[in-house]
Amino acid sequence: MHRRALSLGGFVVAGVSQLLLGVAMYAAGDSPANPLFSVLGGLLVAGVFTRALLQGNDLNGLATRPLFVAVGVASGVLSAVLTGAVLFGA
């Protein structure tokens, strides 16, 4: 798989996870400010990296650097695992 897709995809997963957590917090009756910041942050992260992923943009070569790939993949995996644990009570 292409390094650009791995790194940007990881950040997209992290943003979507943050968005899902915000929606779950709002549904659980948390104060409106906490879920709002979570949803806005998730939309921002997912939006920026989804747009770059769909347009084929490598963020001026940053998305293909090994450290950026490692951080993107790690953040996506960690976010997905933690979101699953919170939402499904693991």
SSE blueprint:
Blueprint: H1 3-27, H2 33-55, H3 66-88
Tell me what you see in this structure.
This protein is mostly helical and 90 residues long. Helix content is 79%, strand content 0%. The protein is elongated, with a radius of gyration of 14 Å. The termini are far apart. 27% of the residues are buried.
Short summary of the structure?
The chain has 90 residues and is mainly alpha-helical.
Low-confidence stretches: none
Largest sheet: none
Average pLDDT for all residues: 92
Termini separation? 30 Å
Global structural class = mainly alpha
Rough shape?
A: elongated
SSE order: HHH
Fraction in helix: over 70%
How many beta-strand segments?
0
Note the main attributes of this structure.
90 residues, 3 helices
